[in-house]
Structures are given as C-alpha cells and as structure tokens.
Amino acid sequence: MHITQHTDYALRVLIYLAANTDRLVTIAEVSQRFDISRSHLMKVANQLVREGFVEGLRGKGGGLRLARPAEQIAIGAVVRRMERGMELVECFGHDSNCLLTSNCKLKGVLATALEAFLQSLDRASLADVIEAPQKKLLYFAKPDAPPPARKAARARAAKMPQSAG
Amino acid sequence: MHITQHTDYALRVLIYLAANTDRLVTIAEVSQRFDISRSHLMKVANQLVREGFVEGLRGKGGGLRLARPAEQIAIGAVVRRMERGMELVECFGHDSNCLLTSNCKLKGVLATALEAFLQSLDRASLADVIEAPQKKLLYFAKPDAPPPARKAARARAAKMPQSAG
Prior knowledge:
The structure is a homodimer.
Chain A: H1 5-19, H2 27-34, H3 38-50, E1 54-57, E2 63-66, H4 75-82, H5 106-122, H6 126-129, H7 134-138, H8 149-159
Antiparallel strand pairs in A: 1-2
Helix pairs in contact in A: 1-3, 1-4, 2-3, 4-5
C-alpha cells in the first residue's frame, strides 16, 4: 500500500515551507534540498497553489509560501486533495471487471477503513509535524548560497540528538 | 492510494471459497469466474495456504477450501499478511533519500493512520462480506460445467435486487 510520489512530494514541500516562513522559497531550492526533479516539483507546486495550500509569487525575487498558518493545514486535507487515485482496489474505479462488483460488501468495508485512515490524518496539522528538532533541521536562512543538499542535511542531522531505534 | 493486485485477488479468492464451502474449488475455476490469469492466481493461492487462510488438497479431485470458518478470518489479517509493501511513502523503506528521514514526525503520523486503516479492517470478517445476496451470487453448485464467467455473473446479477445508487 502506497501513497503516490506526487502526494509524498507535496507533503515535503509543505513541511519545507512551514520551516521557512520568514521568506519566499523557490522551487529550485526545494529541488536541490530534497534531490527531486524540478519539473516534477513544478507540477506538485502548481497543484498546491490551485488547492489553496500555497501562494506563488512570480518574477524575480518570487517564490512559494504557505497560504495559511501551518496550524490550519491538516495532513488529511493535503492527502485528500493531492492523492489522485483513491481507488484502493480495482472495483473503486469506473471500469471494474470484478464479478463481485454489483453486490460487493468488501467495497464498503474498504471504504470505511480508508475513511478511518484519512480521519486519523485529519487530526494532525502541518504544524504538528514541523515541531523542533524537525524545524531547526529544515531552516535555511541563506537560500542563495546553499551547500550541497545531502551533505548539508547529513551534517545537520549528525549534530542533532538522534532518537533511539 | 492502492492495495496491491495481489491482495485484491487474495480477497476475491477467499470470498469465493467462503461462498462455496460445500466443496473444493480449483484454481482453474476461480481463474475463469474472475477472469484472472491462472499463474497469478497460483501465486496468490500458494501464499494463502502458507499464511494459513486456505487448505490446498493436491491431485485429482483436489482443490482449495478455507482453512477455518469465514467468521474467524478478519479482512485486516488478510491485508496485513498478503500486502507485500506497507511502505506508505518512500521513508518507510530502508533506502530512503529524504532529507527529513532522521527526525521526521510525518512518518509517525502516517504510521498511526495506517494502523487505523488496518484496525478498521480487523473489525470485519470474511463472513461479514459474504452475507446474502453476495453469497447467492457467488455460489456455483456445478463447477465442472460452468457457463462463461461474465455472462453467468451478469445473468445472476440481473436477477438480484440491486441497491439504489
């Protein structure tokens, strides 16, 4: 069972923006920090803007920022809006071939479980997942001259207290 | 978000066996009824046997049957055992590239939601999803001369009362 990469990246962009609320963040910067292709991130960012999670300012000095405080962005809302296919199994779609489709009770059982999953995510906000030390790890005051992404992250991570296990 | 086809097919096999408990069911029959490749079903059935959900009797006149009553098989248990990848996002795996991995709170939030999903599925048994009219639709007394799968299913479905919507 997987969440799509599209939603995964959307969550990373939001987390990064939530850790850097004092300035605009460019797609190039996020691309570098997370080692994700710029074109893929562009699609993710465009949808985040369309869905009202992010504001995008064009032109020189432009960039992305959260459209509302991190406390007001539920992780469940992000997954509901960004996840393109919520068809847990074939029969959730329109072109089901399954013999059972017309009277299947399994579909209802799976739909209830999916709702339980999303409601659990509704209870966590972007602010909840960006508490220290996460926020400190992700805060970059000087975006114009960032060090290589992985190396910097590892160096910062090495300085942070690690949780056991 | 999807459940793998492997798990989807496993649930279909179990539902079919639960509707036909008065006899052994062959893989050829399930393959025909659901229009699923025999080799794929063989892998699914082998794992169902290994996991203790199904008993397989070899040889002429052999076939598959539930290893225990449908009331004692939780849908959640089937999904937990059959679903090969429970890595909701990249960072659940061992080779995560994400900058956030070392201190990520999102991982915990997603893991909690996944558990809510599975616990919801734990509350439904195979018997719950195979109540009439589902069971009647799937019961085939004469497996040796089955009519073409889709046609028979549609004919039976047409005779069943359809739920609104």
